[in-house]
Automatic annotation (TrEMBL):
It comes from the Bacteria. Residues 11-71 form the HTH tetR-type domain. It comes from Chelativorans salis. InterPro entries: Homeodomain-like_sf (IPR009057), HTH-type_TetR-like_transc_reg (IPR050109), HTH_TetR (IPR001647), Rv0078-like_C (IPR049484), Tet_transcr_reg_TetR-rel_C_sf (IPR036271). Residues 34-53 bind DNA. Keywords: DNA-binding. This is TetR/AcrR family transcriptional regulator.
Amino acid sequence: MAHKPRSEMIAETRRKLVTAARRAFGTVGYADASMDDFTAEAGLTRGALYHHFGDKRGLLEAVIAEIDAEMNTRLCAISAKAGNRWQGFVDECLAYVEMALEPEIQRIVLRDGPAVLGDPSTWPTQNACIGSLTESLRRFADEGTIVAADPEALARLLNGAMLHASLWIANVPDPEATSKKAVQALRTFLDGLLTENRGSR
């Protein structure tokens, strides 16, 4: 029987560790997740965890990166269904905030993530998000859909609003009610950028 290539074995080991850790972080939380338990579940040792991720914190970063990538895929699918690009952009922004209601995202990304990794606005994924928002807003301004304003400044304001709304939702006693308020406020903010609304003010 042929041996698997080393790169494939490494990828498989990393996948097992991330899957087991994600399950543990999502059910009992980062602080109570036992490295021995989830490495044993993956059929691996602590040594494998340290080799591939450095420590438990590094594994949390990998789990959050995986969840973030999945969220991005879902958001792209949502925007693709819209009737036009602006509506797709709005739908994507609102859906991002609404995802803060999902238990796994709440616990791992919005509660344990900031507690362990620090301010989410400094995470590497945020730079990519701001870059993408900036390009979209620049395009909308160039075509006259939204008011003329510095696109990076708008992107940073919008990104901050969405991020803090998500953190708010994840850390209150009534996330459902808070989500509704946050989504409505965000919709009002986005509507205010449209050039067609200027004449009524």
